[in-house]
Amino acid sequence: MHVRVETEPNNELRVRSNEVPPSELGSARIKKLISDLTETMRAENGCGIAAPQVGIHERVIIVDPGNGPRAYVNPKIVSRSLRTFSFEEGCLSVPGVWGMVKRHRSVKVRAHDENGIEVSLQATDLEAVILQHEIDHLDGVLFIDRVEKITRLPNHQIL
């Protein structure tokens, strides 16, 4: 089910999310949340979404760098490359605003998938950017907090 996306300046976006308890990993409730997040991300033409963006303060994200959406529950960045680069980001929760954000080029993430199975992945470039952006949401951080240069689109250009 498509869910309404919370937008800035809603203070709920600044709340740190709670971990999904081990007993809930792979549960029907978490699978439904993942389904709703995925449908919402697609409907909004996003490449990532985090549960806090729909008012749910649990550590669940969806990431789609172009090869299909993947869900991560309780994701944690366990290592980062020293190399960084600036990437132009936008956000479903900050409509009409884009900005250059410096991110690590590569990150290693540990999480659980939609079935509660522990996974580990090494992500680079766009996938690494999306993971860092969505994990920031789980900590109440928006890309505009990290932006180097911001661009606002005129209202007639906002889709």
From TrEMBL:
Residues 1-17 have a biased composition (Basic and acidic residues). Binds 1 Fe(2+) ion. Its cofactor is Fe(2+). GO terms for molecular function: metal ion binding; peptide deformylase activity. GO terms for biological process: translation. Keywords: Hydrolase, Iron, Metal-binding, Protein biosynthesis. The keyword Transmembrane does not apply. Fe cation binds at C91, H133, H137. InterPro entries: Peptide_deformylase (IPR023635), Peptide_deformylase_sf (IPR036821). The keyword Acetylation does not apply. Its EC number is 3.5.1.88. It catalyses: N-terminal N-formyl-L-methionyl-[peptide] + H2O = N-terminal L-methionyl-[peptide] + formate. Residues 1-20 are annotated as: Disordered. The active site is at E134. Belongs to the polypeptide deformylase family. HAMAP family: Pep_deformylase. Removes the formyl group from the N-terminal Met of newly synthesized proteins. Requires at least a dipeptide for an efficient rate of reaction. N-terminal L-methionine is a prerequisite for activity but the enzyme has broad specificity at other positions. This is Peptide deformylase. It comes from Candidatus Uhrbacteria bacterium RIFOXYB2_FULL_57_15. The gene is def.
